């Protein structure tokens, strides 16, 4: 198909497609004439993946390029390819003087659970950062709560990850990862807050619904 | 204590304290002389709460003022006071034409679980928004996954909320709520991503640790 058709099919403006071509995010089409090229399904799939990475994953184009490089590197195992994408989803590393001891706590927690996680995983720092915030506010992290959380996500992940990393094409595997991580993260957080509100209502024995701004 | 001492004790600059006084976020101190006032522990506690709401909760001062109003309104039950704070934590409502049917799905899910949640809870919209994103990407929300998530957060919340809303002073109850919602949310998300990476490694049978950028 021509670039105009590729734009129509994908919903991505022609100018953006040309920009992706110039930046090497999208491979060139097959030349059909001077200044004309033909594009195929692989271009549609690639545009869709870029859309998921930027719109859902919130990644900048420079980071998208790094993920696409991993997708195209056939010498890279599916596990390492997914690792590049997973880590690209962030969060960005933060500077915090108290982070080192907290990172040791995190490493200890992972070792106790036998979780096999890269030293570079950004979530190590994210967890350490949260533990620092608790300490800064004068609260010791509640290890019983941490254990319950770890049990819960361990169970959830054991049922989800096989679904995401079954023998599907690499592009699709990355899309599943981004959606499973980012969108289902939003689902989990929203459900958690709804459950909190419900249990707060139960706990405080609210019997009459109210029209006030608070919980009903 | 004098305002300079209040600043030293709280770590909040004098100029900021004066601003809070002008905006009515901090009640005036007891007048001791012309242009001099004395501040007490309740001012320290209030400054600390404002700090938690802005730094941890990420709230703007206008929203902080709304939460403080609820704290000071003794006619408001603890449940409703916490509701004002919980809803203030967001997320902001979004515009989405497809949101209405998704909101109906959310209401159905809540009804099926018997969860008692205010019609105004922002998390209803947050969950509906995530469901819309899935549909936009051509994936139907996986109801088995939603049920597993709901089971997990139901169990977690049933054990945490009593801790947060035991008979503690109102200020402390709000602090517990903000910390429990925001910081432990970060803990949960980080743990989930670590568990995902571990299960991905298990699933893809990664046997030799590697120094590549991906999962090890």
Task: Describe the structure in your own words.
The structure is a homodimer of 216-residue chains. Helices cover 67% and strands 3% of the residues of chain A. Chain A is built from 9 helices and 2 strands; from the N terminus they run H-H-E-E-H-H-H-H-H-H-H. Chain A has helices spanning 3-10, 14-23, 41-56, 61-72, 78-88, 99-113, 122-136, 143-165, 170-203, and strands at residues 30-33, 36-38. Chain A has 216 residues and is mostly helical. In chain A, a hairpin with a 2-residue loop joins strand 1 (30-33) and strand 2. Chain A has a two-stranded antiparallel sheet with strand order 1-2. The interface between A and B is large, with 86 and 87 residues.
Q: Using CB atoms under 8 Å apart, which protein chain pair has the greatest interface?
A: A-B, 86 and 87 residues
Mean pLDDT of chain A: 85
Strand order of the largest sheet of chain A: 1-2
SSE order of chain A, one letter for each helix or strand: HHEEHHHHHHH
**Backbone CA Rg of chain A:** 22 Å
**Number of distinct beta strands of chain A:** 2
Largest sheet entry of chain A: 2 strands, antiparallel
Structural class of chain A: mainly alpha
What is the molecular shape of chain A?
Answer: elongated
| Low-pLDDT residue intervals, each spanning 5 or more residues of chain A | 208-214
Give me a quick take on this structure.
Two copies of one chain form a homodimer. The first copy, chain A, is mainly alpha-helical and 216 residues long.
